Amino acid sequence: MNSEELQQIAEAVRLEHEKYDYEINVCMGAGCLAQHSDKFKDALAKEVESSGKRCHVRSAGCLGLCAAGPLALVDPIEVRYGHLRESDAKEVIASLGGKPVERLEMHLENYFQGQQHVVLENCGRIDPEKIEEYISRGGYEALLKALTEMDPQGVIDQIAKSGLRGRGGGGYPTGLKWGTVAKAVGSPKYVICNGDEGDPGAFMDRSVLEGDPQRVIEGMVIAAYAVGATKGYIYVRAEYPLAVSRFSASLREARRHGFLGANICGTPLLFDIEIRLGAGAFVCGEETALIASIEGKRGTPRTRPPYPAVSGLWNCPTLINNVETFANVAPILRNGAEWFAGMGTAHSKGTKVFALTGKITNTGLVEIPMGMPLREIIFSIGGGVPDGHKFKAVQTGGPSGGCLPEEHLDLNISYDALIGAGSMMGSGGMIVMDDTSCMVNVARFFVEFCMTESCGKCIPCRAGTAQMFGLLSKICNGEASHQDLDLLIDLCDVVKNTSLCGLGQTAPNPVLSTLRYFRDEYLEHIDHHRCPAGVCACNARTPKAELAEVTV
Amino acid sequence: MSKTRLATAWLDGCSGCHMSFLDMDERLIELSGAFDLVYSPLVDFKTFPEAVDITLVEGAVSTTDDVEKIHLIRARTRLLVAMGDCAVTGNVPAMRNAFGPDAVLRRAYFENADLQQQTPLVVVPKLLDKVRPVHEYVSVDLYLPGCPPSAATFHAVLTELLANRMPDVASLTRFGA
Amino acid sequence: MSASVDVKTLVIDGVDVSARQDQTVLDVARENNIFIPTLCHLEGLSEVGACRLCLVEIKGSPKLFPACVLKVEEGMEVITHSERLLHYRQTILELLFAERNHVCAVCVANGNCELQTIAQSQRLTHVRLPYRNPKLPVDLSHERFAADHNRCILCTRCVRVCAEIEGAHVWDVMGRGIDSMVITDLNDPWGSSSCTRCGKCVQVCPTGALFDKSKVGVSHPKSPEFLPYLNLMREEQ
């Protein structure tokens, strides 16, 4: 594959598209599929046939606004439809050339204004299983450029200059990591893509893998070239069957076009990717646990150093990046590091995909430039809190993150600002809570998550989270004393500072951040056996009541 | 100086701690000049008095009766000592926590009884769901682990307490000692 | 510094010590009679850094480091004892005591138990946390040994000694988090497992979780000191 061939493919796609007046992209992401978008698509295709209109119906990836699924986007008129049923197909096709179907049309100016799509640029615009469509939108140009015009160090320099940081949550500078692996002594070297997205309410990586898998493959091949790796793995949760099947189809396509295997794009580069399925353990998102899992061992983290960059998979130098990190690589090389560094804040460059969920009008996937205030994401893009309820908190960073209250909504999204406020960027889950949420109960939920997902290797995380959960339950039930609260705070400190891996070290965050901003709710449960939000059943078996009951 | 008002109490335990206390033998006589024993299963006082300086509590809290007693004791005691592993950790009485009080009653009053197989409703206080250490009910000032703490430990601890000093317990005894 | 590249000098608790560059802080501390508590560490087995009792402070870092896997570095200033570390160690021990049913008074290992001894060394006299009192099995199926899961602290010494020294890998860990259990084979009874009856796991077990049935009711000291010698002899072969 060389650039002429690439252009020929793109040209062929263009010619094919010219046959149509319209293209309807029907979302085939997991959310819309669950609401039978495939049936709607089939109905559309039938209608097109019988109406004789020059319209192409495409199975596309995620269109973003999952709350209004099934979704479809009509190009080139940029009309978006939501809540589609099979029976709507006739009307949609009939309307082509005339006025859009008002009943189904969504007006989403606010939702899209302010968003900036880099990672999601192709999501919903291409058929994820057709590599040609990816190529027609500039796909694999970056790889070709890297292989033909740049040396490996040049690629690393570009990534470093772009300021890209790990999108899995840690925010480690990607260029620095690539440089370490490139310099590491040992052979073979591995590239691993971490697709073990497990945070509650997070579905960014899933949407990218389902909607634009070639982008991830391209990123991984470029990384392999840069660090000198010959073998790649993508570790995906088995709970994402659609992502897995699309990704494996894409791997076959990529191999067929010579982007994987031996002599990639006619160069000496040798690299291939294998899929490994996670068996449902959240902790396998932690890099050392993930490596153990790929090696076929029990998925438990180990102490670092040595870091995987030096000694990872089978004790060889290993580069591990998250799906979204790899998805950013091709655009950076295509458009230049300066372009990427032009977006975002001083220390957090580029864009970030968030999965907006919870008590928010526009549930779905959004991609925004770093530095955007939380308020804008939630109230402008997200459409605010529905049903007349009042915003209470937003939870970012998954179970490791924290809950930020109203007064922090003017915070500009960046790795450092979120940590400063007691939360973290995480992989991009963003859960909005309104006045019907009890913050103690929320903390309890996340601690329960960490408790059940703890691998059990180190004591503080294994037994500490279980004790924290017990104390939080006691508070929720209105049975706790101030002593219990002190004990909880003490345990948070111990678990945070003594746990072996990130799971335990961050497990107390939801408790600490809710205590920092919503301490009064804890006190209300303790002092008055009352849940202000009316969520917890604290009709209190207080110690006194218990005694009265059991006295014979 | 008036003598220290000392009490000992017995919740759910085997009385081994009291036996070990008595094992101080003649050292007890030497100490007794410094305290009055105002309440104890070893002597014949019926009610727990007011204004006790030091109370040594043996046993875990496992019945409704224990709960009432320990609250009363705490209210009337300046310095409460959890004496022995049952009071400190729950120890052997707490081994029933894994299977519950019903199994205990069934074993005691049905499986091991030939006549009158029935759960007692009077005199025997109701068993709590879980047996817990004393400090889960009231605040404890000093923990004296050991099953039982040795007579030497008792002597060292009492000598210090009667002299108004806090003993260094960790150097004297441990869980299961 | 002298020309010798193999030697590092560092400070542990204010004492200047020297070490070979491949040594861990724990090794060096023990050589210099500085006591750092450990439960999962055992000389002769691989390190897992799981019990977190050996965490130490390093001057200039807010983070704590497990001494068992921390390699010495030139000029490093290590603090192995502080109020903060004592508090963390005590709490970790409390977590262990509250996790399962460690009833010292009726334990076969009473008086010979590392958990018990370390608790005393860390001045632990009571446990603030509520006891969980889980219902756990006792495996008496083996003709010589028994496994009482009520006493297990999941240090995985048995797993490592069986896999790394005996080469049988009969023991492993099942389940996750608080429900984790050590198991023989695929959770088969120990007695009908592929156990070679070598008894190494019993000797390395720090508590009364794995014990020799013939020692019930009498003193049951464990002897894990054989490991380094065994390793040495194998290296020489």
Q: Any key phrases for this structure?
A:
heterotrimer; A: Rossmann fold; Ubiquitin-like (UB roll); 4 domains; four-stranded mixed β-sheet; 13 strands; globular; disordered C terminus; B: alpha/beta; Rossmann fold; five-stranded parallel β-sheet
Write the layout of secondary structure elements.
The complex is a heterotrimer of chains A (about 550), B (about 180) and C (about 240).
Chain A: H1 3-18, E1 22-27, H2 30-34, H3 37-51, E2 55-60, E3 72-75, E4 79-81, H4 89-95, H5 109-112, H6 131-136, H7 141-149, H8 152-162, H9 174-183, E5 190-195, H10 204-211, H11 213-227, E6 231-237, H12 241-256, E7 272-278, H13 287-294, E8 318-322, H14 323-335, H15 337-341, E9 351-358, E10 364-369, H16 374-381, E11 391-396, E12 402-405, H17 415-420, E13 429-434, H18 439-453, H19 459-476, H20 482-498, H21 502-506, H22 509-528, H23 543-550
Parallel strand pairs in A: 1-2, 5-6, 5-8, 6-7, 9-13
Antiparallel strand pairs in A: 1-3, 3-4, 9-10, 11-12, 11-13
Helix pairs in contact in A: 3-4, 7-11, 7-14, 8-9, 8-11, 10-11, 10-12, 11-14, 18-19, 18-22, 19-20, 20-22
Chain B: E1 4-10, H1 16-22, H2 26-32, E2 35-39, E3 52-58, E4 61-63, H3 64-76, E5 77-83, H4 84-89, H5 101-111, E6 127-132, E7 142-144, H6 151-162
Parallel strand pairs in B: 1-2, 1-3, 3-5, 5-7
Antiparallel strand pairs in B: 4-6
Chain C: E1 7-12, E2 15-20, H1 25-31, E3 55-58, E4 64-66, E5 77-79, H2 83-99, H3 114-121, E6 138-139, E7 145-148, H4 157-166, E8 171-174, E9 181-184, H5 200-204, E10 210-212, H6 226-236
Descriptive account of the structure:
The complex is a heterotrimer of chains A (552), B (177) and C (237). Chain A is α/β, with parallel strands linked by helices and 552 residues long. Chain A folds into 4 domains: 3-109, Glutaredoxin; 138-341, NADH-ubiquinone oxidoreductase 51kDa subunit (Rossmann fold), CATH 3.40.50; 351-434, Ubiquitin-like (UB roll) (Roll), CATH 3.10.20; 439-528, NADH-ubiquinone oxidoreductase 51kDa subunit, iron-sulphur binding domain (de novo design (two linked rop proteins), Up-down Bundle), CATH 1.20.1440. Chain A is 44% helix and 13% strand. Chain A has helices spanning 3-18, 30-34, 37-51, 89-95, 109-112, 131-136, 141-149, 152-162, 174-183, 204-211, 213-227, 241-256, 287-294, 323-335, 337-341, 374-381, 415-420, 439-453, 459-476, 482-498, 502-506, 509-528, 543-550; strands at residues 22-27, 55-60, 72-75, 79-81, 190-195, 231-237, 272-278, 318-322, 351-358, 364-369, 391-396, 402-405, 429-434. In chain A, the strands form 3 sheets. Chain A has a 5-stranded mixed β-sheet. In chain A, helix 7 crosses helix 14 and helix 18 (439-453) crosses helix 22. The longest helix of chain A is centred in the last third of the chain and has 20 residues, at 509-528. Residues 541-552 of chain A have low confidence and may be disordered. By secondary structure, chain B is of the alpha/beta class. Chain B has 6 helices and 7 strands; from the N terminus they run E-H-H-E-E-E-H-E-H-H-E-E-H. In chain B, the strands form 2 sheets. In chain B, strands 2-1-3-5-7 form a 5-stranded parallel β-sheet. Chain B has a two-stranded antiparallel sheet with strand order 4-6. Chain B starts with a strand and ends in a 15-residue tail after the last helix. Chain C has 237 residues and is of the alpha+beta class. Chain C has 2 domains: 7-81, Ubiquitin-like (UB roll) (Roll); 86-223, Alpha-Beta Plaits. Chain C is built from 6 helices and 10 strands. Chain C has helices at residues 25-31, 83-99, 114-121, 157-166, 200-204, 226-236, and strands at residues 7-12, 15-20, 55-58, 64-66, 77-79, 138-139, 145-148, 171-174, 181-184, 210-212. A 5-stranded mixed β-sheet of chain C has the order 2-1-5-3-4, with helices on one face. In chain C, strands 6-7-10 form a 3-stranded antiparallel β-sheet. At the A-C interface, helix 18, helix 19 and helix 20 of A face helix 2 of C.
